[in-house]
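Quick start: read one record
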Amino acid sequence: MMFDARKDTAWLSDLSPTELRRIVDGLYRVHHLIAAITDLNELLERIVDESKRIACAEGSSLMLYDPDAEELFFHVTLGESGDLQALKCQVRLKLGQGIAGTAAANREIINVDDPDRDPRFFKDADSITHFETRSLLAVPLVDRENLVGVLELVNKVGGAGFSETDVRLMEMFSSLAATAIANANLIAENVRAERLAAIGQAVASLSHYTKNLLTTVTGSAQLVEEGLETNNLSLLRGGWPILRRCTERMSYFVGDMLAFSKPRVPNLTPCSIDNVLTDAEATFRSMMAQKDVSIEVDSSLVNGPVQVDPDALFRGLLNILLNAGEAVAAETGAIRVVAETLEDGALRIDVSDNGPGIPEGLEEKVFAPFFSTKGSKGTGLGLAVAAKIVAEHGGRITASKASEGGALFRITLPQGGAA
């Protein structure tokens, strides 16, 4: 029968002050298990470690219950000797098999002083681990009538068997441990579900974006092919720029995925910020030629060379520019890039536009991977890659409202000792 604090406390009055102190200390440590509830593996290891300490045992192990196979299997083992890892690979117990299986089947603690004389004792475990079991305490873990697993305490320190106090302590311990494991499992399942949902959303977003690019590539390629077949230069002139822009977009799309997926240490090099900004501006104009967006770049307030990774910064800036280019209106859209050296020596780059701006409350979310307000027209990777590149430089990036009414993205990169 499992512990019921309301009905089963009379035994405490018979304990010595030392035993009472041990119980209080044990329960105090048990409640610290809650700190590990979000990490199932850490929680299980701490449960095994604390049970070993509370019961003063030489070894302890935790067997989890597999409801599909109706079997117990070793997950964590602690002891002074033996090939304990082999237990995880070679031993599975059916309900009712061995002392642990019997404790699980009956939902009752079993305390055995001399396991060799008990016919229920599963001797294969000792054979595998070369660990001599002299005393054994099997404690079922049950949460709301659901079997979670079994704790096994092996060999009471000092040579005697496990006492009635040990049994009572483990009754209390097992109740909390079982609930903690059940809650950690629930958290893990929710996290897995959220990750799967996020992966599904990301795949859908990338698939829509790729499909749109491929549709445009197919249409422009057909124009080019028809122009070649009929020697029609007007068709060639109309189809080729579209095909080239889509090819560039696909190339940068693949580059963004690689940049986002791999950690990278920036190759900091003294260089002219003018060259980085000019390259980003020229590439932006090429890729956004169909919208005829105006862009103004000013780096007159930068003092000399800057210490950055020019290729990485180029990609980050281009992604911000493309994001702004998608947001502003055709022909009337305007983007302004201003770079300057701050008093502490840091480099600051502002990219502002006259688009609709960022909806209130989304200033931080826009940097999250696969977050996009443009539906299938965006990947949700551009700003995330830009933020990652800035972070790899040890810098900061923020999004806010621009004076023109649109969005303002501000990049601050340390130079030397600047933060």
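The chain has ten helices and 13 strands.
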